[in-house]
UniProtKB/TrEMBL annotation:
Catalytic reactions on record: 1,2-dihydroxy-5-(methylsulfanyl)pent-1-en-3-one + O2 = 4-methylsulfanyl-2-oxobutanoate + formate + 2 H(+)
Gene3D superfamilies referenced in this protein's UniProt entry, alphabetically: Jelly Rolls (2.60.120.10)
Protein name: acireductone dioxygenase (Fe(2+)-requiring)
GO molecular function, one term: metal ion binding
Keywords: Amino-acid biosynthesis, Dioxygenase, Iron, Metal-binding, Methionine biosynthesis, Nickel, Oxidoreductase
Protein's UniProt keywords contain Hydrolase: no
InterPro entries: ARD, RmlC-like_jellyroll, RmlC_Cupin_sf
Class of this enzyme: oxidoreductase
Highest taxon, organism lineage: Eukaryota
Protein EC: 1.13.11.54
Cofactor(s) needed for function: Fe(2+)
SUPFAM superfamilies, per database record: RmlC-like cupins
Organism: Arabidopsis thaliana (Mouse-ear cress)
Length: 173
C-alpha cells in the first residue's frame, strides 16, 4: 500500500498474505517479500473495517450506529493475555485451529493488538492485524472446516465466491 492510498483505517489495520512456515503461529508470518492486502480486497471477502474511538467505546456514536445497523445486540470484553485468560496457552492454540462460525465474527481491539486470519477467494491465507459484537447473545460454537453444508457457510459462499466451479450451492438449505 502506498502512502497516498492509505486512509485512517489503514493506519490501524494491516493485512498480508501469510507465508507457509510452521513455526510459532503468534508470529506475523509475512511472505518474503511482504505482500500486503488492501482494505478493498478485504471488503470483497466480507471483512469490514472501521476506525473507532476505543478510548470512548461506551459513548462512541459511530459504534452505536454500527451496532444498530448490523443488529449487534450483545457485546463482551475478552482480555487475551496469560494473566487474564484461564488456560491461556490452550485457548490460543484453539484460536489457530481453522474453523468457521454460523454468525458474523467481529473484533474490536480496545487495547493491544491481535491477528485474525481469513482465506481469500483462492483459499490462500490472509492475516489481518487488528470487543466482540454479536447478533443476539454470544455464540461461541466453532465449526472446523469444511462444514460447507451449514446454511451460514452456503450463504457466505454464494455471496462472496462468485465463481465456485461445479459445486452446487443452495443458500436456502
Amino acid at each position: 500500500m502506498g502512502e497516498a492510498a492509505k486512509d485512517q483505517t489503514e493506519e490501524v489495520i494491516q493485512a498480508w498474505y501469510l507465508d507457509n512456515k510452521e513455526e510459532d503461529q503468534k508470529l506475523p508470518h509475512h511472505k518474503d517479500p511482504k505482500e500486503f492486502v488492501s482494505l478493498d480486497k478485504l471488503a470483497e471477502l466480507g471483512v469490514l473495517c472501521w476506525r473507532l474511538d476505543a478510548d470512548n467505546y461506551e459513548t462512541d456514536e459511530e459504534l452505536k450506529r454500527i451496532r444498530e445497523s448490523r443488529g449487534y445486540s450483545y457485546m463482551d470484553l475478552c482480555e487475551v493475555c496469560p494473566e487474564k485468560l484461564p488456560n491461556y496457552e490452550e485457548k490460543v492454540k484453539m484460536f489457530f485451529e481453522e474453523h468457521l462460525h454460523i454468525d458474523e465474527e467481529i473484533r474490536y481491539c480496545l487495547a493491544g493488538s491481535g491477528y485474525f486470519d481469513v482465506r481469500d477467494l483462492n483459499d490462500i491465507w490472509i492475516r489481518v492485524w487488528a470487543m466482540r459484537l454479536f447478533v443476539g447473545g454470544p455464540v461461541w460454537t466453532a465449526y472446523n472446516r469444511p462444514h460447507d453444508h451449514l446454511p451460514a457457510r452456503k450463504a457466505y459462499m454464494k455471496k462472496f465466491l462468485k465463481v465456485i466451479g461445479d459445486r452446487n450451492i443452495d443458500a436456502s438449505a
